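Team,

Forwarding the record for the chain on the shared tracking sheet. I've put the sequence and predicted structure together so nobody has to dig through attachments.
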Amino acid sequence: MKKRYIFLGLLVIIFAGFYFCAPSLESIVKQVVHKYGSAVTGTDVNLEGFDIKLTQGEGYIGKITIGNPKNYKEKNIIELGSISVKVDIKSLTSDVIIIESIDVNKPVINYEILSLTQNNLSQLLENIKNNTASAEKAETADAKPADTADTAAAEKSGSSKKVVIKKLTIRNGEISVAANAVGELAKATLNLPDITLNNIGEEKKGASIAGTISKVLTKIADTAYKTVIDSNITDLKNVAKENLDNVVGGVKDRIKEIGIFGK
C-alpha cells in the first residue's frame, strides 16, 4: 500500500511539472525563434500561438512570420501558418531535442521585385548566407556561460540545445508575386511546390538552432524563387531574368552560389 502511495505521489509531481513547465516552454521557444531567427535573416522573426501537450509530445504553432527586408511593401516576406509538431518528449531534457515531424500547411511567400537589381527573396537569401555563421557563433557563446548560475540560465533560455528534425513537410503553399520594373507593375499568384526535408541535423548529431532555421528558410526561399523564374508567366519571368542579368558588383555570382536555380 505504501508503494502505491509513493507511485501516485510521483505521478502528481510529474504532471504538476508538465503543467507548470508548459507556459515556460512556450516563452522559451518564442524567445529562441525570435532571437536566432532574426539574427539569421536580418529581419524580424516571430512565433505566434504556441501550444504543446507535453504528455503526448504533440504541439501546434499558429504562425511564424519572417519580416521583409527594408524598402519592401509587405510587412512579411514569409508567413508559415498552421504548423503541427511532434516531439520525442524524452529528448526535452537532453542536449539534443528530437523533433519527429513538423508539418507546415498553407504558407505564404510574398515575392517582390523592387527594381531590375533588387528583389526581396534574393536579399533574404543573401542575408542568410552572410549572417548564419555569426548567428551560430553567438548561439555557441550563449551556450557556454562563465559560471554555474549562468549555465542554468542558458539551459532555461534554450540556447544550449541542439536539434534534429526527422521530417519537415511544407505543403499547399502560395507565392504572391509583385514585380515593378521600369514603371510597370505585374502581379500573379503561384503555387509553391511541396517541400520535404529529412533528418535535418542528424549528420552532426544535432544542429544549432540558428543553423536549422537557416537551412529551412533557405530551402523555402530558394524553391519560391526558382518557381517564379521557371513559371510560364511571361512578364514576370522576363522581369526576374532581367533582374538577375543586370545585377552588379558580384551579387549575381553570390546568388548562383546560394543555389536559386537549383544548380
